[in-house]
């Protein structure tokens, strides 16, 4: 019978072997840092795609004449203005510390971490 090298286990299916992952020892204690890395808020779904596609389809049908597509262009501009206002509102709320969409921003986390420092152990 062949000798099985350490770390390898023979599977019940004949000839199939896999390696057992090694257990790593912790070199540092699991403690949060005093700050987190700044990250921009993830972008949500793209806005005004429907209006933009309708406007482009109208342009294509009317040989790219703005006068024939005034209704679609107005709808697209109105949508982009509303999206810009919403982005500004969310950014202002983030600067005030208001939680948006159930998630804290990195800015708000960095404000909270000094309030609750982790205890320092004597070595």
Automatic annotation (TrEMBL):
Cellular component GO terms, alphabetical: mitochondrial ribosome; mitochondrion; nucleoplasm
Domain CHCH per the UniProt entry, residue ranges: 48-81
Source taxon at top rank: Eukaryota
InterPro entries in the record: CHCH, Cys_alpha_HP_mot_SF, Ribosomal_mS37_met
Alphabetized UniProt keyword annotations: Disulfide bond
Signal peptide positions on this chain: none
Keyword Disulfide bond belongs to the record: yes
Gene Ontology biological-process annotations: mitochondrial translation
Entry protein name: Coiled-coil-helix-coiled-coil-helix domain-containing protein 1-like
